[in-house]
Amino acid sequence: MIYLVKPGETLTSIAQDFRISPAVLITANQLSDPNKLTAGQPLIIPGLPEPSSIPYSIMISIGRRQLTLLNRGQVMKVYPIAVGKILSRTPIGEFVIVNRQPNPGGPFGVLWLSLSKIHYGIHGTNDPSSIGKAVSKGCIRMQNKDVLELGSLVPNGTRVSIRQ
Protein backbone atom coordinates (compact mmCIF):
# COMPACT_ATOMS: atom_id res chain seq x y z
CA MET A 1 0.00 0.00 0.00
CA ILE A 2 1.13 3.57 -0.64
CA TYR A 3 0.61 5.98 2.26
CA LEU A 4 1.01 9.75 2.05
CA VAL A 5 2.77 11.32 5.03
CA LYS A 6 0.61 13.84 6.91
CA PRO A 7 1.93 17.04 8.53
CA GLY A 8 3.58 16.34 11.88
CA GLU A 9 3.98 12.61 11.37
CA THR A 10 7.28 10.85 11.98
CA LEU A 11 8.59 7.52 10.80
CA THR A 12 8.03 6.18 14.32
CA SER A 13 4.42 7.39 14.51
CA ILE A 14 3.60 5.93 11.08
CA ALA A 15 5.22 2.63 12.02
CA GLN A 16 3.14 2.52 15.22
CA ASP A 17 -0.08 3.32 13.35
CA PHE A 18 0.53 0.48 10.89
CA ARG A 19 1.89 -1.92 13.55
CA ILE A 20 5.25 -2.45 11.81
CA SER A 21 8.80 -1.59 12.79
CA PRO A 22 10.51 1.60 11.63
CA ALA A 23 13.29 -0.62 10.21
CA VAL A 24 10.78 -2.30 7.87
CA LEU A 25 9.63 1.12 6.62
CA ILE A 26 13.23 2.30 6.14
CA THR A 27 14.08 -0.82 4.12
CA ALA A 28 10.86 -0.87 2.06
CA ASN A 29 11.29 2.79 1.13
CA GLN A 30 15.11 2.90 0.90
CA LEU A 31 15.15 5.95 3.16
CA SER A 32 18.60 7.46 3.50
CA ASP A 33 17.49 9.82 6.29
CA PRO A 34 14.39 8.54 8.13
CA ASN A 35 14.27 11.77 10.15
CA LYS A 36 13.46 13.81 7.05
CA LEU A 37 9.90 12.97 6.05
CA THR A 38 7.80 15.64 4.37
CA ALA A 39 4.03 16.04 4.23
CA GLY A 40 2.71 14.42 1.08
CA GLN A 41 5.70 12.10 0.72
CA PRO A 42 4.58 8.63 -0.42
CA LEU A 43 5.67 5.66 1.68
CA ILE A 44 5.28 1.99 0.86
CA ILE A 45 3.54 0.13 3.69
CA PRO A 46 4.56 -3.48 3.06
CA GLY A 47 2.07 -6.27 3.65
CA LEU A 48 -1.09 -4.29 2.93
CA PRO A 49 -2.88 -4.24 -0.43
CA GLU A 50 -3.74 -0.94 -2.03
CA PRO A 51 -7.20 0.02 -0.64
CA SER A 52 -8.43 0.88 -4.16
CA SER A 53 -7.94 -2.79 -5.11
CA ILE A 54 -10.46 -3.89 -2.46
CA PRO A 55 -14.14 -3.78 -3.46
CA TYR A 56 -15.25 -3.08 0.11
CA SER A 57 -15.08 0.14 2.10
CA ILE A 58 -16.52 1.21 5.44
CA MET A 59 -18.21 4.52 6.26
CA ILE A 60 -18.76 5.34 9.92
CA SER A 61 -21.15 8.08 11.05
CA ILE A 62 -20.43 9.04 14.65
CA GLY A 63 -23.60 11.14 14.91
CA ARG A 64 -25.86 8.41 13.57
CA ARG A 65 -23.87 5.73 15.38
CA GLN A 66 -23.86 3.62 12.24
CA LEU A 67 -21.26 1.65 10.32
CA THR A 68 -22.09 1.25 6.64
CA LEU A 69 -20.43 -1.49 4.62
CA LEU A 70 -20.10 -0.64 0.94
CA ASN A 71 -19.28 -2.96 -1.95
CA ARG A 72 -18.03 -1.02 -4.98
CA GLY A 73 -19.72 2.09 -3.58
CA GLN A 74 -23.12 0.45 -3.08
CA VAL A 75 -24.58 0.03 0.40
CA MET A 76 -24.39 -3.61 1.38
CA LYS A 77 -25.37 -3.41 5.05
CA VAL A 78 -25.76 -0.89 7.88
CA TYR A 79 -24.82 -1.85 11.44
CA PRO A 80 -25.55 -0.09 14.74
CA ILE A 81 -22.40 0.85 16.69
CA ALA A 82 -21.17 2.51 19.88
CA VAL A 83 -18.66 5.34 19.62
CA GLY A 84 -16.31 7.31 21.86
CA LYS A 85 -17.58 9.36 24.75
CA ILE A 86 -16.96 13.11 25.12
CA LEU A 87 -13.57 12.78 26.82
CA SER A 88 -12.35 10.03 24.46
CA ARG A 89 -13.87 10.81 21.10
CA THR A 90 -13.68 8.53 18.09
CA PRO A 91 -11.07 9.93 15.68
CA ILE A 92 -12.33 11.48 12.46
CA GLY A 93 -10.53 10.81 9.20
CA GLU A 94 -9.42 8.20 6.71
CA PHE A 95 -7.92 4.94 7.94
CA VAL A 96 -7.42 1.35 6.83
CA ILE A 97 -7.74 -1.96 8.64
CA VAL A 98 -4.16 -3.05 9.32
CA ASN A 99 -4.63 -6.34 11.17
CA ARG A 100 -7.08 -8.38 13.20
CA GLN A 101 -7.16 -10.40 16.38
CA PRO A 102 -9.83 -13.05 17.01
CA ASN A 103 -10.98 -13.40 20.63
CA PRO A 104 -8.91 -10.53 22.08
CA GLY A 105 -10.69 -10.93 25.39
CA GLY A 106 -12.12 -8.46 27.88
CA PRO A 107 -14.33 -5.67 26.58
CA PHE A 108 -13.31 -6.26 22.95
CA GLY A 109 -15.67 -9.17 22.30
CA VAL A 110 -14.98 -11.81 19.68
CA LEU A 111 -12.90 -9.83 17.15
CA TRP A 112 -10.61 -6.79 16.99
CA LEU A 113 -9.93 -5.03 13.66
CA SER A 114 -7.02 -2.59 14.15
CA LEU A 115 -7.25 0.76 12.41
CA SER A 116 -4.24 2.67 11.06
CA LYS A 117 -4.29 4.87 14.16
CA ILE A 118 -2.60 3.31 17.16
CA HIS A 119 -4.98 2.22 19.97
CA TYR A 120 -8.13 2.42 17.80
CA GLY A 121 -10.15 -0.32 16.20
CA ILE A 122 -13.50 -1.81 15.31
CA HIS A 123 -14.40 -4.56 17.74
CA GLY A 124 -17.09 -6.64 19.38
CA THR A 125 -18.21 -6.07 22.94
CA ASN A 126 -18.89 -7.85 26.19
CA ASP A 127 -21.61 -5.23 26.87
CA PRO A 128 -24.23 -5.46 24.08
CA SER A 129 -26.39 -2.81 25.80
CA SER A 130 -23.71 -0.19 24.96
CA ILE A 131 -24.46 -0.33 21.23
CA GLY A 132 -26.07 2.91 20.06
CA LYS A 133 -24.38 4.97 22.76
CA ALA A 134 -21.32 7.22 23.10
CA VAL A 135 -19.48 5.19 25.74
CA SER A 136 -16.21 3.81 24.35
CA LYS A 137 -12.65 5.08 24.72
CA GLY A 138 -12.79 6.08 21.04
CA CYS A 139 -13.12 2.71 19.35
CA ILE A 140 -16.05 1.52 17.28
CA ARG A 141 -18.02 -1.17 19.13
CA MET A 142 -20.30 -3.61 17.36
CA GLN A 143 -22.49 -6.52 18.38
CA ASN A 144 -20.31 -9.65 18.34
CA LYS A 145 -22.34 -11.29 15.55
CA ASP A 146 -22.02 -8.11 13.46
CA VAL A 147 -18.24 -7.73 13.86
CA LEU A 148 -17.81 -11.41 12.96
CA GLU A 149 -19.87 -10.90 9.81
CA LEU A 150 -17.97 -7.72 8.91
CA GLY A 151 -14.59 -9.33 9.62
CA SER A 152 -15.44 -12.31 7.41
CA LEU A 153 -16.03 -9.96 4.46
CA VAL A 154 -13.44 -7.19 4.65
CA PRO A 155 -9.71 -7.92 4.27
CA ASN A 156 -6.84 -6.00 5.82
CA GLY A 157 -6.27 -2.87 3.74
CA THR A 158 -10.00 -2.02 3.64
CA ARG A 159 -10.58 1.74 3.73
CA VAL A 160 -12.45 3.08 6.78
CA SER A 161 -13.82 6.63 6.62
CA ILE A 162 -14.99 8.10 9.93
CA ARG A 163 -17.16 11.22 9.83
CA GLN A 164 -19.02 13.23 12.40
TrEMBL record:
Which GO molecular function annotations are given, in alphabetical order? Answer: glycosyltransferase activity; peptidoglycan L,D-transpeptidase activity
Q: Does the keyword Hydrolase apply?
A: yes
Write out the pathway annotation from the protein's UniProt entry. Cell wall biogenesis; peptidoglycan biosynthesis
Active-site residue list:
H123, C139
Specify the LysM domain's residue ranges: 1-45
Q: Identify one Pfam family in the record.
A: YkuD
Please verify whether the record's keywords include Glycosyltransferase: yes
The UniProt keywords, alphabetically, are: Cell shape, Cell wall biogenesis/degradation, Glycosyltransferase, Hydrolase, Peptidoglycan synthesis, Transferase
Every copy of the L,D-TPase catalytic domain together lies at 56-163
Identify the GO cellular component terms for this protein: extracellular region
* CDD domains in alphabetical order: LysM (cd00118), YkuD_like (cd16913)
> What GO terms describe the biological role, i.e. biological process, of this protein?
cell wall organization; peptidoglycan-protein cross-linking; regulation of cell shape
Q: Which domain of life is it from?
A: Bacteria
Q: Where are the transmembrane segments?
A: none
- Family statement: Belongs to the YkuD family.
Q: Which PANTHER family match?
A: L,D-TRANSPEPTIDASE, L,D-TRANSPEPTIDASE ERFK_SRFK-RELATED
> What is the name of the protein in this document?
L,D-transpeptidase
Q: Which organism is it from?
A: Metabacillus indicus (Bacillus indicus)
